Amino acid sequence: NAGVTQTPKFQVLKTGQSMTLQCAQDMNHEYMSWYRQDPGMGLRLIHYSVGAGITDQGEVPNGYNVSRSTTEDFPLRLLSAAPSQTSVYFCASSYSLSPGPADEQYFGPGTRLTVT
Amino acid sequence: GESVGLHLPTLSVQEGDNSIINCAYSNSASDYFIWYKQESGKGPQFIIDIRSNMDKRQGQRVTVLLNKTVKHLSLQIAATQPGDSAVYFCAENSGGGADGLTFGKGTHLIIQP
User: Fold this and answer.
1) CA of A45: which chain B residue's CA is closest?
2) Banded pLDDT at A39 (limits 50, 70, 90)
3) Pairing of strands A106-107, B107-112
4) Interchain contact, B102 vs A41, CB within 8 Å
5) Which is it for the CA torsion B90, B62, A29, A91, positive or negative?
6) Chain A within 8 Å of B21 (Cβ-Cβ)?
């Protein structure tokens, strides 16, 4: 299994540009999520999905869109990038909505995004 | 401990020594706790977990201690190795669904040769 994969690893955008961060998992996990990680702060949930066709907002959803057309893929879209979106983005997946014993949440390697 | 600013707290230990990383959690209703390790340029990786009905759990070279009275969690790493250098952070699950997982800010562990 490749686990959770993310592309690209690095990206530089100008303010106002749009882009899509890709995330895929091959573990047949129903639950997928996007987090952002900023210096000195814990991971913050942006959006999540409990299965194909179902998405919902997390703690910091503004400026981001998601869709879940397949179990495997969960892309994150920035419609009009802003400097405040400079961050490292992690995608994660697990079998269930609420990670617990024997249901570990797996993280991708991250995408480092800079918006100038 | 947890960071309140832009810089993570740092713990520096000699290779071979034991290290203890601490975490104060916020929600007394949290019933499950996780420690993650994050190496530079990589995603977080699960290390060990503990349910709220336990006060200690051991893994390979790692032990997690839970003190619910003071809402404190610690990760002990025995006989540290260079590969243990990373940022370690805790997470608590208050059972509230997707956003029930709250992450700490992390501690940077540096292993000195």
Assistant:
1) B99
2) confident
3) unpaired
4) no
5) positive
6) no
Asked if the peptide bond before residue A8 counts as cis, ω within 30 degrees of 0, the response is yes
Task: Note the pLDDT of residue A29.
Answer: 93
Using an 8 Å Cβ cutoff, are B27 and B95 in contact? no
Tokens 């699960």 identify what position? B46
Average pLDDT over residues A2-8: 95
Read off the amino acid at residue A40: G
Are A107 and B100 inside 8 Å of each other by CB? Answer: no
Contact (CB, 8 A) for B52 and B31: yes
Beta bridge partners of B23: B73
Which pLDDT belongs to residue B31? 87
Closest-CA distance of chain A to residue B25, Å? 12
